[in-house]
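comment on this one:
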Amino acid sequence: MTGESWLQISPPTRETALTPALYQTRIRDVQTGLGRRGLACMVVIKPEHVRYLSGFWGYSTRPEYASPRRLVALVVPASGEPTLIVPKIEFNFASRRTWLRDVRHHVEWAPRPGEVFGGLELLDVVLKEKGLTRGCAGAELGFISARLFGMLSDTFPQLAFEEASSVVEALRVIKSPEEIDIMRISGRMAVAELQAELGAIRAGVREYEIAQRGRAEATRLAAEYVIAHEDNPLPIEHPLNDGHQILTSNERLDMVHALASTRMLGEGDIVLLDFCRIPQLYGYRIGFSRNAALRGLTAQEQELYDIVDHSYDAALDVLKPGLPAEGPDLVVREILEKAGLVDSFVHRTGRGVGLEAVEGPEIGAGDKTILKPGMVVTVEPSIYYQGFAVHVEDTYLITHDGFERLTECPREIRVIPAR
C-alpha cells in the first residue's frame, strides 16, 4: 500500500460529512443532557470536547488554553445559541473553522474600548448576557486545574459548578456514521504507515529514522485525501498533526510507552512499532501496532507469541454487543496467568479511541459498560521483556452482530531479511 494513491477512496457524502448540521445535532444532544441534569449551561474547556462541538481545534490543544490568560471555552446554554470564547490570537482561525455564529475574543494586554481583558472576564460578560450567573452549571472538573476551578468559583460565587464531562462523553462513546467513515480510512492509513516503516527497518538505522518514514506517509496520505475531497464542507484541513510514535527495539522493548529514540538497530534485533500516538485523518486516533524482527524467532519466542496470539483470539470471542467492556480483558488475563506471563502484561486489553487516544469504554477489569454498536475500541493483549515483546493491537468497530476490524493487517511478526 505504501506509495499508492488514496484518490480512489470514496469521499464522505453530504449526509456523512462533518457538516454544520452534524455539529448542531451534537449541541442539541448536549442541551438535552443538561436539561436532564437540571444544569443551566455547560462551560466546555477540554480541547477534544470543544472540537467535537464547535469544529475548532488548532493550537488550542496546548495546556495554556485551559488557563485564564488564553482561555478557550465553549458556553453551551441548556437552550439557546452557544458562544465560543477564544484569545484574540486565535480569533481569525476560530471564526473560519467553526460553524458557530457567535465567536468572541479576549485580549492579554490593557484593553482598548470594546475589548475585554482575560478569558474569565469575557466568560462573565457572556454568562450575564445569557442570564446564566446563578444556579448550577456543568464543567469538566476532572480536566480543568484546581487553580482554574478556584478562579471560576471566585468569579461566579452564585453559580455552582458540577462535574458534567459525561454529558459530552456519553455522545462521543458512540461514533456517528461520519466518524466511522473517518476511522475506517484512518485504519487503512495506519496500515500504510506500517508498510512504509517496515521498508525502512535494517541494521544501522536508528529508531527515529524509521518513525520519520511513517510520519511522512501519514502526512502524505492525509493531505492527498483532503485535497481530493475539497468539496467536503470542512474548511482546509491540516495534515501535519502533533504526535510522536512509540517505537522500541531490543533492550528497550520493555519500556512500553517509550518514543522512537536515537538507538541504532543491530543484526538480530526485535522491533515494536506502535501507531496509537499518531493522529490520522482529521485528527482521529487509531490503536494499531505490530512487531518486526531482523532474524527468525527462537522456538521459545514463537511459543510466547503463540500464547499471546491465542489470548487475542479469545478476546475477540467475547467482543460483541450486549456484553460488559471488561469481558475481553478477563479472558486474556486468565490465559496469560495460566501461562505464567501475566506479570509482563502491564496494561489493560484495550480502550476506546476517537479524537483521543484513550476514550471510553475501557476494555479492562472493572468497566461494566455494555458494549454497543458504534463503539470503537482496541484489542491489544501483550507481553514485554528486554530483548523480546509481543504487542499486536487492532481497532474494532462494534456492530449490531459482532465487530468490524478497521486495521486489516496480518498479525504475525514480520521477519525482515538482512540487507
